[in-house]
Amino acid sequence: MVYNLLKGKKGLIFGALNKQSIAWQVALKSYEEGAEIILTNAPFALRLGDTKILAEKINAEIISCDVTNLDDIENLIKKTLEIFGGKFDFLLHSIGMSPNVRKGIPYDHTNYSNFLKTLDVSALSFHKIMQTCRNYDAINNWGSIVALSYIAAQRTLDRYNDMADAKAILESIARSFGYIYGKEKNIRINTISQSPTRTKAGSGVDGLESLIDFTEKMSPLGNATAEECANYCITLFSDLTKKVTMQNLFHDGGFSSMGMSEKAIRQYEKSFEENS
Ligand SMILES: NC(=O)c1ccc[n+]([C@@H]2O[C@H](COP(=O)([O-])OP(=O)(O)OC[C@H]3O[C@@H](n4cnc5c(N)ncnc54)[C@H](O)[C@@H]3O)[C@@H](O)[C@H]2O)c1
Q1: What is the DSSP letter of 252?
Q2: Which end of the chain is more exposed for a tag (fewer CB within 10 A), N or C?
Q3: Please, what are the domains in the chain?
């Protein structure tokens, strides 16, 4: 079902690597809902990923940008303004990477230069992008900015490692910048805290399959898929959510409010029976 919720709007979308990517689904839905899109990703991702396939499908230009590099971000925003012929209306930050997670280095043996890289790519990049957008006055009044987060920002989850700290900073940046951009330009900034999802970044986390099974059993509505996450993003980009800002919004089938579910108790009891 298409509602034309983004008719006439223009959006910049970071992080569509392949069709599993949450950003891929967001770009597709945004296009279906009438938006004009520009896609961006890191040079390595544009070489190895499928972003070009998506760009053809949705008639989008691609601009390369490593989000740790301020010159790249500045170039990205300038080119985006050129291609759109003016300001744009929404932006999706869908970026995460931890060298410690990738290399299997545990949190209590962390490598600090890796840790800094995690924070830079996954959290500070959000600040860098928004500060550059503001410097260039790139986003229309009443625009909307969304970044993707995870519940590890509030609750400790085994093996999520330094990404938990990155997500806590990311959510804090959304509030701090949301205040500034809100009072100046009525631009809203929110994070969506998404269920565990099978993607390239997700699969980097050791034990993802068990986590997906656990949260599926714990959540009354079940895990949220990437496509469902995209639907939620569309509402936040649309004019229907103009006064929602500085929030971390859980999109997790109810997991974040649960303590224990019937399905999880049954699974736990089964393991007792098997071990007795
Ligand atoms: N998959 C999950 O379980 C899950 C759950 C909650 C939140 N998230 C968040 O969703 C977002 C998107 O991740 P995904 O799961 O779709 O995985 P993904 O691997 O498809 O997307 C991550 C993206 O980050 C990009 N990226 C990495 N380093 C970059 C850099 N230096 N410059 C520019 N881009 C860079 C990658 O190229 C990739 O496109 C991330 O913030 C992730 O933490 C994922």
Answers
A1: S
A2: N
A3: 10-275 (3.40.50.720)
